[in-house]
Amino acid sequence: MPPLVLASGSPRRRELLGQLGLSFVVMSPDVDETPLGHEDPRRYVARLAAAKAGAVARRTAAAGAVVLAADTTVELDGTILGKPVDAADAARMLHALAGRDHEVHSGVALAHGGHVHVVTVTTTVSFAPLGPAEIGWYVATGEPMDKAGAYALQGIGGAFVVAVHGSVTNVIGLPLVETLGLLAQAGITVG
């Protein structure tokens, strides 16, 4: 099996990939994550995942590595909700999500043999209604600060999620069904 590199600094992606029992190393990519104008959220995550995989693949090409990268964002009414810049921004996002459905998009890219393959996964998440006290309490925990959409399904923020329609691991940051499919194309399988 070729060496596997996870092109991500995300502890959640590292945990999810680790649950599959695969051996891999982590290399964080240096990619500008600024959306382009009114970029479609699905295109945005696909573009970033491909850029991250390509950046790390260029550094590991001599080793024949397979590079896996992903990017996840939250979309509400066509607007990308990335990571909040401060507590007020996190509170604004949570207020907007409260009592509504939104979409979580992940782009997953696999770079191997000079090619980059990308898949995009979308999951719909339904949020409970939230009042100012709940939002203020959650923001004060600090959990929302490095999460797209200002919440973590796998953490305290899961208490606000009424339903998930689609891939749960997508919402956490790495859709495993699609990831396994991409890895199999490069000859990396579990079990």
Any overview of this molecule?
Helix content is about 35%, strand content about 25%. It has about 190 residues and is an alpha/beta fold. The protein has one domain: Maf protein (Alpha-Beta Complex). Strand 1, helix 1 (about 10-20) and strand 2 (about 25) form a beta-alpha-beta unit. Helix 3 (about 85-95) packs across helix 4. It is elongated. The mean pLDDT is about 95.
How is the secondary structure organized here?
Elements: E1 4-6, H1 11-19, E2 25-26, H2 41-60, E3 66-76, E4 79-81, H3 87-97, E5 101-112, E6 115-127, H4 132-141, E7 161-165, H5 168-172, H6 176-185
Parallel strand pairs: 1-2, 1-3
Antiparallel strand pairs: 3-4, 3-5, 5-6, 6-7
Helix pairs in contact: 3-4
Features:
6 helices, single chain, alpha/beta, 26% strand, seven-stranded mixed beta sheet, Maf protein
Concise summary:
The chain is α/β, with parallel strands linked by helices.
